[in-house]
């Protein structure tokens, strides 16, 4: 239920966060070149943006309630470590809502079109900041920055996770209490207040290196998904034929595809940085996702350490250190779980890598639009002009973009098993004590599926017909 | 500051501000979500195309108010979880069933609002009306669930049993049924009377009959709703005397029990109800003669619009300094306030100031959007 909810939310959110990076350059090009087709493209894609935001908000409500109601023990983290990111996120969200509405309703109404574009830029800052702050909260669950050597005490192979900005005594008390009481410990205000401050520096969470690379990588991934999906939608309209509008559709395809290609290259660079953070702070996840049991591997050694002969610690080496843990059972469980999920995790990880490589190849081929040599190469290999290739391959690009994004997120979330907050809190310790019946789960999943279906239908139909065409159709129906 | 810590002071104010704006606008969403499909039904039944026009025009208000309500609803959740974590935990655990009911309501209402709008005149009338009924049903479910939170903090019936797993015992709360009915009719009254007042204002004293039909129609709905709201509100007031004596003492100025006196603010509520009633009846009588009065419409809109925030503010603030009332005393707000991070007075004051400025900017932004949206060029460009 939670997984489906997050993925449905993520689908719409990836568009809501990524599309501004397609819309605003298109609008700017339209203004600079006085090209109405770019302006029209920006305007239509901004409708997709608005729909995605709307469905993102609906599904976000579901995720939000899911968090505080089903995973009710997480309020402990919301009240401490997530407090600053979430409070800042409220302001970012507010900026996003107001400026999205202003941006949509002021199309063609500003004497200076750059002012309208500026509204869009503020909106982009709002939506990207909102995403960054939510990802900061999520990143803290991956690497609980500011807990110092606390995780190291439980998982001895882990490095210190940032400076120590926490009340270690209180956190250890909670760590020892949660397995006995579950999240019910939160029902006692006196127990919680008796612990004193959990966190001395609430801002420490914002400086988590995991959050910084995750934000960059995830926002770039949303641009990849949004740009290639836009290209695919307009390619479909182009191939279907639409009463002389083909040149417009083709131009939009080429433009959005280009944005996707640029974002793909940057995503690969940040992806590398992300893998390094994982290797440093979540070494077991690194082994599982690489499908590697430690020792030497020339490729991994070369990429990771610039040394093909580097010897990586194995599961056995880590198991030997588990005895030094203040909770050896949890340390062993973490090692065992990493080995259990290795086949799934490495499959997902390499699905992401392969998708990224395919997108990189498509990005190189896209250069054929600007280079005769590359165009000749594309024609030789595929027997299509680069232009036709871009149109046809946009569907594959959209698909691979989604696969890469979904698989990458799955690796991130599954990889921290058996922990909710890595090294500190486990899922069974924060779930509500109330029974979650199958009927309740099925109902929520049904609603999620319906919302997803409605959203996808709206995403296709509304932008590919101009709003005036829809209005005319309404008039015809009215008769 | 009045026995508050910086966190509880900030939490009380931020929660209060967000709740006030949210509840005011969500009442309009709820009322319009019920009134609009009902209006569509009447239009089909009486083959009245003009009434259909009324429904469509009024729907725009629903969308705009839903935007405001939704944003501040998110604020409430974050403020609750961030500043009142233990209270949030207890509420989501003990009130799991009613919060789920509200969540189901939201999940039904939001997509059905979108589907209802985009399928208007594009699908069969019956199916469209069915979507409208779903929208109304979803909207009514939201207060049905969330009002339990208010009933619970006024009178925490079944807390211990619920913590042991009996999640339905809370529904025996004596305040709850009346509070739900009062909320339903309160929102219907507010929406109908505010809409009547706005249409009367927009008629600009026109003698061509423009705005007359809309005003008369909404007054015909709003006046009976106002009578029901006043009756249930009065009953709720006396119910508090036995179920939540501390709140009753606060709002009646009984200094022997309550630490604060909210009687002067509370008295505004019946006065506003009376003003709304008199102006509504006056406007209705004028409308029957084919006339409308702009001053009267302004009075009606202001009085109807203010009743909800005034009564909510009184009901919520009258719990101070407690967060949960237990008879003629309560559990202090400080006990539930976030004690896990250091927050100084300067940070608390800064946060509240920023929130007020942001809220004002937000509402101004919404007003600007409303102006742009209702201008003729915007209609063309959309």
Brief descriptors of the model:
heterodimer; A: 479 residues; mainly alpha; 75% helix; disordered C terminus; B: 382 residues; 2 strands; 79% helix; 2% strand
Structural features, described:
- The complex is a heterodimer of chains A (479) and B (382).
- Chain A is mainly α.
- Chain A has 21 helices and 2 strands.
- Chain A has a two-stranded antiparallel ribbon.
- Chain A is globular, with a radius of gyration of 24 Å.
- Chain B has 382 residues and is mainly alpha-helical.
- Chain B contains 14 helices and 2 strands; from the N terminus they run H-H-H-H-H-H-H-H-H-H-H-E-E-H-H-H.
- In chain B, helix 1 (6-45) packs antiparallel against helix 5 (125-154), helix 1 (6-45) runs parallel beside helix 13 (345-374) and helix 8 crosses helix 9.
- Classes of the chains: A mainly alpha (479), B mainly alpha (382).
- At the A-B interface, helix 3, helix 4, helix 5, helix 9 and helix 20 of A face helix 2, helix 3, helix 4, helix 13 and helix 14 of B.
């Amino acid at each position: 239920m939670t997984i489906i909810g997050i993925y449905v939310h993520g689908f719409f959110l990836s568009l809501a966060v990524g599309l501004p990076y397609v819309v605003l350059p298109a609008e700017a090009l339209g203004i600079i070149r006085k090209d109405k087709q770019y302006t029209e493209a920006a305007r239509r894609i901004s409708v997709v943006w608005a729909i995605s935001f709307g469905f993102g908000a609906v599904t976000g409500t579901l995720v939000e309630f899911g968090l505080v109601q089903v995973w009710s023990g997480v309020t402990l983290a919301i009240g401490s470590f997530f407090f600053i990111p979430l409070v800042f996120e409220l302001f970012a969200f507010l900026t996003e809502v107001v400026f999205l509405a202003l941006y949509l309703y002021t199309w063609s109404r500003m004497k200076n079109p750059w002012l309208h574009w500026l509204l869009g830029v503020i909106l982009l800052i709002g939506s990207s900041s909102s995403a960054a702050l939510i990802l900061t909260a999520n990143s803290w669950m991956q690497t609980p920055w500011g807990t110092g050597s606390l995780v190291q005490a439980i998982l001895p192979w882990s490095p210190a996770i940032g400076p120590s900005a926490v009340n270690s005594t209180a956190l250890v008390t909670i760590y020892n209490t949660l397995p006995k009481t579950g999240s019910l410990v939160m029902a006692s205000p006196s127990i919680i207040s008796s612990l004193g401050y959990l966190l001395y520096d609430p801002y420490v969470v914002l400086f988590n290196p995991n959050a910084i690379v995750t934000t960059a990588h995830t926002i770039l991934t949303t641009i990849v998904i949004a740009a290639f999906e836009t290209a695919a939608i307009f390619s479909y309209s182009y191939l279907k034929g639409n009463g002389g509008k083909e040149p417009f559709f083709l131009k939009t395809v080429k433009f959005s595809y280009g944005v996707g290609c640029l974002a793909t290259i940057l995503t690969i660079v940040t992806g590398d940085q992300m893998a390094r953070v994982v290797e440093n702070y979540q070494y077991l996840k690194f082994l599982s996702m690489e499908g590697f049991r430690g020792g030497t591997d020339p490729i991994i050694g070369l990429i990771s350490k610039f040394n093909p002969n580097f010897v990586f610690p194995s599961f056995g080496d880590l198991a030997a250190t588990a005895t030094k843990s203040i909770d050896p059972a949890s340390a062993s469980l973490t090692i065992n779980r990493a080995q259990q999920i290795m086949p799934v995790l490495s499959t997902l990880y390499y699905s992401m890598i392969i998708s990224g490589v395919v997108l990189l190849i498509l990005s190189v081929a896209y250069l054929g639009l600007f280079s005769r040599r590359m165009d000749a190469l594309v024609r030789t290999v595929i027997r299509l002009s680069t232009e036709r290739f871009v149109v046809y391959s946009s569907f594959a690009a959209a698909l691979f973009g989604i696969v890469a994004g979904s698989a990458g997120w799955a690796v991130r979330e599954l990889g921290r098993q058996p922990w909710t907050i890595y090294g500190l809190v486990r899922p069974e310790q924060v779930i509500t004590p109330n029974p979650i019946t199958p009927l309740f789960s099925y109902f929520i999943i049904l609603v999620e599926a319906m919302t997803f279906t409605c959203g996808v239908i709206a995403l296709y139909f509304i932008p590919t017909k101009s709003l005036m065409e829809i209005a005319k159709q309404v008039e015809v129906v009215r008769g | 500051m009045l026995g508050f810590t910086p966190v509880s002071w900030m939490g009380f104010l931020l929660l209060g501000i967000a709740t006030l704006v949210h509840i005011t606008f969500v009442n309009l969403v709820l009322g319009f979500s019920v009134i609009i499909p009902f209006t569509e039904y009447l239009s089909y039944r009486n083959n009245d195309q003009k009434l259909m026009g009324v429904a469509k025009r009024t729907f725009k208000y629903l969308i705009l108010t839903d935007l405001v309500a939704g944003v501040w609803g998110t604020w409430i959740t974050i403020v609750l979880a961030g500043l009142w974590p233990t209270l949030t935990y207890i509420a989501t655990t003990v009130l799991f069933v009613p919060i789920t009911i509200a969540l189901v309501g939201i999940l039904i209402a939001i997509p059905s609002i979108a589907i209802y709008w985009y399928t208007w005149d594009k699908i069969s009338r019956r199916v469209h009306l069915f979507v409208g009924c779903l929208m109304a049903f979803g909207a009514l479910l939201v207060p049905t669930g969330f009002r339990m939170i208010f009933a619970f903090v006024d009178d925490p019936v079944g807390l211990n049993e619920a913590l042991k797993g009996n999640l339905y015992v809370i529904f025996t709360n004596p305040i709850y049924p009346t509070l739900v009915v009062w909320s339903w009719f309160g929102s219907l009254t507010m929406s109908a009377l505010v809409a009547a007042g706005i249409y009367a204002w927009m008629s600009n004293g026109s003698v061509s009959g423009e705005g007359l039909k809309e005003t008369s129609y909404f007054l015909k709905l709003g006046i009976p709703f106002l009578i029901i709201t006043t009756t249930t509100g009065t009953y709720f007031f006396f119910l508090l005397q036995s179920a939540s004596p501390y709140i009753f003492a606060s709002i009646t100025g009984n200094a022997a029990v309550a630490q604060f006196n909210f009687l002067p603010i509370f008295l505004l509520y019946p006065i506003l109800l009376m003003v709304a009633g008199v102006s509504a009846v006056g406007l209705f009588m004028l409308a029957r003669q084919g006339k409308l009065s702009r001053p009267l419409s302004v009075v009606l809109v202001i009085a109807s619009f203010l009743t909800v925030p005034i009564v909510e503010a009184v009901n919520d603030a009258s719990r101070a300094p407690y967060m949960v009332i237990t008879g003629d005393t309560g559990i202090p707000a400080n006990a539930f306030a976030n004690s896990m991070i250091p927050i100084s007075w300067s940070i608390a004051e800064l946060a509240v100031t920023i929130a007020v400025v942001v809220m004002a900017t937000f509402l101004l932004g919404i007003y600007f959007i409303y102006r742009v949206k209702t201008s003729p060029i915007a209609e063309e460009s959309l």
